[in-house]
Amino acid sequence: MNNRIFVFDVDGTLTPSRSTMDSEFKQFFDTFCLDNRVYIVTGSDRPKTVEQLTESTYKLCKRVYQCSGNDVYEGNQNIRANSWKLPHSAYVWLEDALEQSDFSIRTGNHIDVRPGMVNFSILGRNASVEQRKAYVTYETKHNERRFIADLFNARFGEYGIVANVAGDTGIDIQPIGADKAQIVPELIELNPNADIFFYGDKTQPGGNDHTIASALLELGHAVFPVDSWKDTFTLLKNTVEN
């Protein structure tokens, strides 16, 4: 086995956002996991990631960093979980932001509490595929999530909390330093002298892959920004062929 490890975001990188893996890509990816050291880092919780990747693919990964690295698993075993809670005043602020949004569709579960973080969505996590598409169209025009995240950070930065755009419809909120970049030291400790290849669709400033991408680049590792799972599939096929 070569001295490389591969680290992947999930939504928009291995799957369509909040959806399951393409069957052809899944078959390829399973073989890739058997031949390589693969890690996952995602803002989602374990049940959602298992739903997206399937239990069998999940278990092929060396370690899965749920909730931006705040809830860590090896297969079914929980390695650790962050017990941080969002301040009540921040909940109130998010509820006000929800009421003030001009986007009309509400599907419920707008403030989703996860280990060490919260995911906020104007649309809500119970949305259908078509409702998600409607929000993406709205978001492309209005850039609402970036606006909300900037306002939140201005208001709650003194609390040591930060908000970043995540996936297609959400905003991830966690303590400063408890984002995806927190897993980098552990990856290096687990894989001394390995070259790290990271793949993510939100590596731009303000995206929830940005901090880990920046940390890895500073250390001389490789980052591959993608726009969809199809880009990841193409990049990995090229890696295997070469």
Mean pLDDT across all residues, rounded? 95
Low-confidence stretches: none
Beta-strand level of the residues, as a percent range? Answer: 15-25%
Count the DSSP helices: 9
Strand order of the largest sheet: 5-4-3-2-1-10-11
Helical content class: 25-40%
> Looking at the structure, what is the overall shape?
globular
Number of strands: 11
Instruction: Name the structural class.
Output: alpha/beta
Q: How big is the Rg?
A: 17 Å
Order of helices and strands: EHEHHEEEHEEHHEEHEHEH
Distance between the termini: 15 Å
Main β-sheet: number of strands, strand sense, barrel status? 7 strands, mixed
Please characterize this protein's 3D structure.
With 242 residues, this protein is of the alpha/beta class. Helices cover 40% and strands 22% of the residues. It contains nine helices and eleven strands. The chain has helices at 23-35, 46-53, 55-60, 88-100, 129-142, 144-156, 184-190, 210-218, 229-241; strands at 4-8, 37-41, 63-66, 71-74, 77-81, 111-114, 117-120, 161-166, 170-175, 195-200, 222-225. The strands form two sheets. Strands 5-4-3-2-1-10-11 form a seven-stranded mixed β-sheet, sandwiched between helices. The protein has a four-stranded antiparallel β-sheet with strand order 6-7-9-8. Helix 1 (23-35) packs across helix 9 (229-241). The longest helix has 14 residues, at 129-142. The mean pLDDT is 95.
